[in-house]
Amino acid sequence: EDQVTQSPEALRLQEGESSSLNCSYTVSGLRGLFWYRQDPGKGPEFLFTLYSAGEEKEKERLKATLTKKESFLHITAPKPEDSATYLCAVLLPLNYNAGGTSYGKLTFGQGTILTVHP
Amino acid sequence: NAGVTQTPKFQVLKTGQSMTLQCAQDMNHNSMYWYRQDPGMGLRLIYYSASEGTTDKGEVPNGYNVSRLNKREFSLRLESAAPSQTSVYFCASSEALSAFSDKNIQYFGAGTRLSVL
């Protein structure tokens, strides 16, 4: 069974204290890994996509990396405004009724709740 | 550019009542999705529409129906609401379904918070 597990469930940091969030997956046919940020009462907001092991992407204080079994979201010198829930999702093959196979099913992890204290 | 718009934002129903959640996107996307989000369960796919004129079941379709009204609009209907359907519902859209492509990036609405008493 395809599984996506995020750890830790919750992380509390002091402003400026760098750390990493983990997303491990056991899936067959990975077609991509996505990171989203979700603020309370809002929908997930897209951050990054990664498609192959060794790939890295950066955006401000965030850096996402991918291996064959897991992805890390590194947060460098976080600020209170980085507080949010971070979701990872893997892209898997999806059959649809028009025939054939295409790719579009996102399977999400549980999320990591990040709190950054000033 | 509003992106993905969901209505209503909040709703309280009694068991057995019906309602339709509305979703519209203005990004000219082909694919649309409905998810529910529950504490400890993450986001789970209810139904999706790969393209206009097609719909199919996701992981948790029981108790729901959908209609892809046109390319912009995708609605979710609860025919007879149950307390187990208390959740936050998100609609999302993507340019297409395609392997190893940013066309798969899904953009989400703000959600509908539904309580069934």
Polypeptide structure, described:
The complex is a heterodimer of chains A (118) and B (117). Chain A has 118 residues and is mainly β. Chain A is 0% helix and 60% strand. Chain A is built from no helices and eleven strands. Chain A has strands spanning 3-7, 10-14, 19-26, 33-38, 45-50, 56-59, 62-66, 70-75, 84-95, 101-108, 112-117. The radius of gyration of chain A is 15 Å and the shape is globular. Chain A starts with a strand and ends with a strand. The relative contact order of chain A is 0.32. The model of chain A has no long low-confidence stretch (mean pLDDT 90). In chain B, the strands form two sheets. In chain B, strands 2, 4, 5, 6, 9, 10 and 11 form a seven-stranded mixed sheet that branches. Chain B has strands spanning 4-7, 10-13, 19-25, 31-38, 42-49, 56-57, 64-68, 74-78, 87-94, 107-108, 112-116. In chain B, a hairpin with a 6-residue loop joins β5 (42-49) and β6 (56-57). The interface between A and B is medium-sized, with 28 and 32 residues.
Write the layout of secondary structure elements.
The complex is a heterodimer of chains A (118) and B (117).
Chain A: E1 3-7, E2 10-14, E3 19-26, E4 33-38, E5 45-50, E6 56-59, E7 62-66, E8 70-75, E9 84-95, E10 101-108, E11 112-117
Parallel strand pairs in A: 2-11
Antiparallel strand pairs in A: 1-3, 3-8, 4-5, 4-9, 6-7, 7-8, 9-10, 9-11
Chain B: E1 4-7, E2 10-13, E3 19-25, E4 31-38, E5 42-49, E6 56-57, E7 64-68, E8 74-78, E9 87-94, E10 107-108, E11 112-116
List how many beta strands of chain B DSSP finds. 11
How many distinct helices of chain A? 0
Number of strands of chain A: 11
**How can the largest sheet of chain B be summarized?**
7 strands, mixed
Estimated structural class of chain B: mainly beta
What is the average per-residue confidence, as pLDDT of chain B, rounded to a whole number?
93
Instruction: Identify the most extensive interface between protein chains.
Output: A-B, 28 and 32 residues
Query: Biggest sheet of chain A, in brief?
Result: 6 strands, mixed
- Please provide the ordered H/E string of secondary-structure elements of chain B: EEEEEEEEEEE
N/C terminus separation of chain A: 41 Å
